[in-house]
From TrEMBL:
Gene3D superfamilies: 2.60.120.40. Pfam families: C1q. It is found in: Secreted. This is C1q domain-containing protein. SUPFAM superfamilies: TNF-like (SSF49842). Its main location: secreted. InterPro entries: C1q_dom, Collagen/C1q_domain, Tumour_necrosis_fac-like_dom. GO terms for cellular component: collagen trimer. PROSITE patterns: C1Q (PS50871).
Length: 166
């Protein structure tokens, strides 16, 4: 038939048809890393968020450096990393919590002659709107949490999905 044109389905760069190919949803980038700007001592507020106020990365703006809370912008699988360094063995136990429920904890080293670092690392399913923060769980009179690169808190989205939290 003269004057009739056929519609060609879209093709990739090699000329293969993309008919029936579904696009994957765009996964937002969500990640933050923060440290403590000044050594903390005299930690009397058990249960209060431990604020990592020196933010080095905050893609997606999920972390609030005033409150110390990370608010999950999307549901998905997240990697949470925290290291707390203390002076000798007198540091506090610090926990990472999701909506108030403990996920993992640090415990100070029992070595009295070295600085002590303790990790708290977990992979967890978060729902959009879940709050994650670090808090002092127990303490000693001489507690000190070291600043700078010695004490860090990071969260990164690994994959996005609509699963329920567990």
């Amino acid at each position: 038939m003269a004057g009739v044109c056929c519609i060609t389905p879209p093709q990739d760069e090699r000329g293969y048809s993309l008919k029936g190919v579904k696009r994957s949803p765009v996964v937002p980038k969500v990640a933050f890393t923060a440290t403590i700007s000044n050594t903390l001592s005299g930690l009397n507020n058990l249960g209060q968020p431990l604020v990592f106020d020196d933010v080095h990365l905050n893609i997606g703006n999920g972390y609030n450096k005033q409150s110390g809370l990370f608010l999950a912008p999307v549901s998905g699988l997240y990697l949470i990393l925290m290291t707390i360094s203390t002076d000798y063995s007198t540091g506090p136990d610090v926990v990472v919590v999701r909506n108030g429920s403990r996920l993992c904890a640090t415990i100070p080293s029992m070595n009295d002659h070295l600085y002590a670092g303790s990790p708290c690392n977990v992979i967890v399913q978060l729902m959009q709107g879940d709050e994650v923060w670090a808090k002092v769980y127990s303490r000693f009179a001489t507690d000190r949490i070291r600043d700078g690169m010695w004490s860090t808190f990071s969260v990164a989205l690994l994959s996005m999905d609509g699963s329920t939290s567990s």
